[in-house]
Amino acid sequence: MPQLVYEYPPLLPGILIKRYKRFLADVELASGEIVTAHCPNTGPMTGVCLPGNPVQISVSDNPNRKLPYTWEMIQVTTANPPIWVGVNTALPNRIVKRMLDQHLLPGLEPYSQVRMEVPYGQDKASRIDFLLTGEEADRPLYVEVKNTTWPQGDLALFPDTVTTRGQKHLQELTALVPTTRAVMLYFINRSDCPRFAPGDAADRRYGELFRAAIKAGVEVLPCRFDVTPIGVFYLGLADLLLTMPIQ
Asked: Distance from the CA of 190 to the CA of which of 31, 46, 227, 229 falls in 20 to 30 A?
């Protein structure tokens, strides 16, 4: 049964005109007005950034913001049926934090304390998204979250471009085991992908490090979510594929 894990504030529907300068998107509202929204996504958004498709944007009442609008999601109309895909890459960590606080991810138990942005790695130069600890846990648990939207059929892939930062995260997590637990949590920000695999076609080195990390003991949680203008629903885990299926 899908579980509501995040409820959106009232959103405005519109049509994506274009994305530009990475962080800007022009959107035509139902009234015909064209507004510029902040695009909180630094990636190429492969297969997702589709001008002419329906979008939903949120509105902030913060007077200090340069742009009051934020692009939250886009509808992929070529999917059957059409689905919404989350665009805001700041949201997955917020949702995972809520789920951790409510102990909604049993694969990470046991823990009683959740800390965010904890320094780790060589010279403590990196920060882990979440560190889970507690007297009941035999080892501390480090959790890194990656937003995932690139599809190949019903298969979600990460990454969709070369990511030296992502490669570094895999290497640092691998170095933690076995004295600690280490988890890569892939936040599949669309409902039509029941399977997950590394995006070798975009970053072969990442795929190599991904498989080496699993072999060393790093755990992988490919978490599926259904994005709607009402809220985000947790669907459970996707099937993990270590090799790409033959087309």
From this structure: 31
Distance CA 55, CA 49 (A): 10
- As a dihedral over the C-alpha atoms of residue 89, residue 93, residue 94, residue 96, rounded to 10 degrees, the angle is 130
**What sign does the dihedral 92-172-166-193 (CA atoms) show?**
negative
Residue 201 has phi, psi (to 5 degrees) of -65, -25
Asked whether the beta carbons of 15 and 27 are under 8 A apart, the reply is yes
Share of the chain above pLDDT 70, in %: 98
Put simply, whether the predicted model's pTM sits higher than 0.85 gets the answer yes
Please give the structure tokens belonging to residue 163. 């990511």
Question: Residues 212, 214, 215, CA angle at the centre, nearest 5°?
Answer: 65
Taking residues 199-205, what's their average pLDDT? Answer: 95
Task: List the structure tokens of 74.
Answer: 């886009």
Nearest Cα to Cα of residue 185 among 158, 207, 165: 158
The rounded distance, in Å, linking the Cα atoms of 181 and 131 is 10
Nearest to 190 by CA among 142, 158, 143: 158
Amino acid, single-letter form, for residue 147: N
The yes-or-no verdict on residue 246 having pLDDT over 70 is: no
